[in-house]
# Entry
Amino acid sequence: MTQTRPVAGIAEEVHPGIRRIVAPNPSPMTHWGTNTYLVGTGEITVIDPGPDDPAHLAALCAGIGAARVRQILITHAHRDHSLGAPALSAATGAPVLAFGPPDAGRSAVMRALARRGGLGGGEGVDTGFAPDALLGDGDEIKLEEETLTALHTPGHFAGHLAFMLGDAVFTGDLVMGWASTLISPPDGDLGAFMASCARLRSLGARVFLPGHGAPVTAAEDRIDWLVAHRRTREAQILSALADGSATPAKLAARIYHDQPPALLPAAARNVLAHLIDLAERNVVASDGPISPTARFSAR
# Structure
């Protein structure tokens, strides 16, 4: 499969029986745009209808044609993945299935941090998202001739689902080939991300079909890179803290020195996710309640 930029709005087969239509919402966080997948031919399952965009809806309806849409699956309730679901559901009559509302699946630690307030986060969350039916870990979803398996894979988002179909896994924003995923608490959780990566690696999948970018054909290698990348970031944070306490933003500016300034706020959220994980493991401490402005130090 080519790694060149696809044309938005055009249905392209990326795996046997699976077509991709890219939404016209490119950005530094979405790469070419959101990938919407059409699984099947005579009866179609849609995965991630993308943003609420009339042009993308028209492209999806054209790709679906006269086929019946059996269901609309959502990997996670970020606006670039889920906001187009109501319009597509209205156009096709298909129900929307997902793990739950936007805050479903948070760990006890993240729930407590969110209740206390001051943590920030919530970037791009589809706050009004409400699926028609819920999917749990291990649930089987009937397709035209095959069966998808839903996998609860938190990390990027608490209620994130991946969907396994044979040797392919739809990985949403958990694993992408062009970038590491944003982990922004309380929706993002680094410890959960590492556990989800380990789980995906154990599946023996041949290809990952991500929410943004091209298919990942060296699936296990990509997981290994992502895990090593996070471990390197942790080591960089601890090395920086050896010189004294610092806020997440200060640490991000030191560690992500090769990033454009516009991406530093997202980098600071990733650093905060690492610091929360390190605090849970009693490796670092904050000078007060954990927050984006707290100063952290090594224990």
Remarks:
- The CA atoms of residues 111 and 186 lie 7 Å apart.
